[in-house]
Design goal:
CATH architecture of the largest domain in chain A: Orthogonal Bundle
Order of helices and strands of chain A: HHHHEEEEHEH
Radius of gyration of chain A: 20 Å
CATH superfamily of the largest domain in chain A: Winged helix-like DNA-binding domain superfamily/Winged helix DNA-binding domain
Largest interface: A-B, 68 and 68 residues
CATH topology of the largest domain in chain A: Arc Repressor Mutant, subunit A
Largest sheet of chain A: 3 strands, mixed
Oligomer: homodimer
Shape of chain A: extended
Number of domains of chain A: 2
Strand content of chain A: 15-25%
Bound molecules: zinc ion
Number of helices of chain A: 6
Low-confidence stretches of chain A: none
Mean pLDDT of chain A: 92
Amino acid sequence: MESKIFQSFLGEKGLKLTKERIAVLKEVFSSHEHFEPEELYLRIKDSGSKASRASVYRTLNLLVESGLVEKVTRTEKSNVYEHTFGHSHHDHMICNGCGKIIEFYSEKLEALQNEICRGNGFIGKTHTLEIRGNCEKCIKAK
Amino acid sequence: MESKIFQSFLGEKGLKLTKERIAVLKEVFSSHEHFEPEELYLRIKDSGSKASRASVYRTLNLLVESGLVEKVTRTEKSNVYEHTFGHSHHDHMICNGCGKIIEFYSEKLEALQNEICRGNGFIGKTHTLEIRGNCEKCIKAK
DNA sequence: ATTTAATTGATATTAAATCTCAATTTCAAT
DNA sequence: ATTGAAATTGAGATTTAATATCAATTAAAT
Ligand SMILES: [Zn+2]
Ligand SMILES: [Zn+2]
Ligand SMILES: [Zn+2]
Ligand SMILES: [Zn+2]
C-alpha cells in the first residue's frame, strides 16, 4: 500500500522507483519504531538488500516529501536558542511561507497537557510545541 | 538580574564568572530574538567584547543548564524519523530518566491547538509536541 | 602574594548530512 | 530486442556544527 503511494508520488515528479528506493521503503516500514538514518542504513545492509548511505539519505528526504514519513525532531542547520529568563513560557507558530514566528501562550493548553501527562502516569517538566502552517499575510497573498 | 542568577548558578557548581562568560551572557540578553551560536559569536565580536567560538558554545550549554536560556529546537545527535502512513497523528512524551517514549493522542488537545491558531489568523498544517519529564517507573524508582 | 583549580583559545577531531561525477540503470520509443 | 535520453547510484570528497585537546592564562580563596 505504501509502495503504491510512493510510486505515484515518484511518478508525478518524473522520478523512478528503483531497487534501492524499494529497499529503503521496505526497511522503513518493517518496524514501527523511531529510527535514525545510519541505523536504517545498517539494517538494510543486514537484511541482504543494498543501498548506499547517500541513497538512504536521499530516499528519506523523498519519503518525508511524500508524507509517508515524518521527522520526529525538526532540525534547522544548527541549534536555535532564546533567553527565557524575563519571558514567560510560550510556544511557537512558524509560517512555512515567510518564516514569521508567532509566540503564543494558552493557560488552557498548558493545563490540558498536564492533565494528559497525569493520565499517562507521567510528570511533564518541559515541552516544546511548534506549529507549522501559514500566517494571515501569506494566506491573503494567495 | 540574570547575571546574579548565573553567578550563583556557577558558584554552586564551583565554576567561575569570567569576562568571556559575562560577554556571552550580556549579548544573549541584549536582544529578545531567537539566535544561533555562530550568529551570537559574531555579535559578541562586533560589540567589542571577545570570546572564542569554543567559549560561546561552552557558555551556551551552561546557560541552558542554569535555566536562563532554552533551546527552541531540541536536537539529538542526528535526525530521528518515523513512518507515519498507517499510523494516526500522535505526539510524544520522553522520559529524561530512562529515555522511554510514550506516544499519545488527544482529540481535545488537537482541537484546542486549532482554536488557538484561528485566534492568531494562522492556519496550522502540522505540529510537533514533545513533552520531557519523568515516566511512572522512574518516578517510583526514586 | 601564593596556590590551586578552572578557563581560555587555537587547533584538531568527530560526525551528520550533502555534494560530485563517472558509471550504471531505468523506461519509453522505436 | 535495441536504442537513447534522463534519472540514479555509490565511493569518496566536502561542508559544517559541535566537541575535544592541551599548553598557557586567569580567577579567587587563603
Ligand atoms: Zn507550552
Ligand atoms: Zn520564542
Ligand atoms: Zn498533536
Ligand atoms: Zn512516534
